[in-house]
Amino acid sequence: MGISFLHVNQTYKGARKKEIMVALEDICLDINEKNEFIAIVGKTGSGKSTLLQHMNGLILPTSGNVKIFDYVLTPKKNKNPKLKKIRKRVGYVFQFPEYQLFEETVLKDIMFAPLNFGFKREDAEKKSLEIMKLLGITDLKDKSPFNISGGQMRRVAIAGVLSYDPDIILLDEPTRGLDPKGALDIMDLFYKIHKETNKTIIMISHDMDIVYKYANRIIVLNDSKLVYDGNKIDLFKDDTYRINHLTKPEILKLIDYLNSKLNMNISYDHYDLDELLSYLEGGNNNE
Ligand SMILES: Nc1ncnc2c1ncn2[C@@H]1O[C@H](COP(=O)(O)OP(=O)(O)OP(=O)(O)O)[C@@H](O)[C@H]1O
Ligand SMILES: [Mg+2]
Known about the structure:
This protein folds into two domains: about 5-235, P-loop containing nucleotide triphosphate hydrolases (Rossmann fold, 3-Layer(aba) Sandwich); about 250-285, no CATH class. Helix content is about 40%, strand content about 20%. The protein has helices at about 50-55, 85-90, 105-115, 120-135, 150-160, 180-195, 210-215, 230-235, 240-245, 250-260, 275-280, and strands at about 5-15, 20-30, 35-40, 65-70, 70-75, 90-95, 170, 200-205, 215-220, 225-230. It is globular. It binds adenosine-5'-triphosphate (ATP) and magnesium ion.
């Protein structure tokens, strides 16, 4: 097993005296080490980032435990394993990438993690330049990471994680701040990495079109609780998505329209518009 949550609770002290804020409530969850592409969704403040932060030990549970590979993380008062070993294997791209960047130049920033994890300088540089090329940011190499746009910062933060080749990749809203084409390019890249290496990718997103296109499992949080964990088709078949404050992907609205107004019988297993259009052109619209 890659990552398991066993009855995890997370609470914070509130602003008022004795006030306790609940961020996660009794979360039980199993994630495979390989072959998963999971989207964590839910309205703002539902606990998504908190859940993700547990997956590489950025925070420790208030109660319960999180097992990451062979390491078991328990509340702070206990003895816990060294986090560096976990961090090397589980990469994390933050919701706000500007908090993740700190070096003088973009290249140095991307090389920081592989060097920190023991790569030789030569290898760290080679790998970083390779990833920068893949992400289309080679020309930013010598710039300060603070003098680039938000979308460029996000790419740099992503490169900083891909550069040390973690086994599992955690992404907190990876397409936020990117233009629509840039968002799809980045998602296509993650999808390619996932397909070619079977790496498990876990992303948080508010964009249901992206979630529906790329994820093969969806986890829904609502008010700190895990309320759905399963396949993407079933989530949108009934009211589950609506009562959990989610919107329906555009592609499914189109399929609903074609089925109800034009008497077609198209199933929900078409995940993006281009694929649906070529399917319709093929004349196979009575499934
Ligand atoms: N460090 C913290 N101190 C106090 N409360 C916190 C802290 N981190 C999170 N919380 C609280 O935990 C709850 C869940 O926050 P979290 O950031 O996980 O939500 P989210 O689902 O990621 O939201 P968003 O979609 O806005 O990013 C919120 O009520 C938040 O105020
Ligand atoms: Mg968040």
